[in-house]
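Q: I have 105 residues here and want to know how they pack in 3D. Can you give me a structure?
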Amino acid sequence: MAGAVAGVGILATFALVTIGLASTGAAAVTGQRLAAAADAAALAAADTASGVVAGEPCERAAQIAALNGVRLDGCELDGLIATVTVSTRIGMLTGSAAARAGPPP
């Protein structure tokens, strides 16, 4: 009987560790996806601001963010330098990332 209780305890511990590691991995993947989406949106806004692409920079950044499955929360232009912030839901939490793009100084 004691062996069965110990076995159930060990299995429960392994299950909790596995769930924790899977959640951590999912959060890491989502963080990388957010960073990539923020980079793409900032580059799109900077390209549009410089005239390489036609349109309005922040609208273009919002389109690119939506294509990457995230929401554009902020878009600021300082000349040809674009700074954007994007976010998405991670389970019950919200993750966000920011990126800046523009010509070199």
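Q: Anything worth noting?
A: Residues 2-101 form one domain. The chain has a mean pLDDT of 90.
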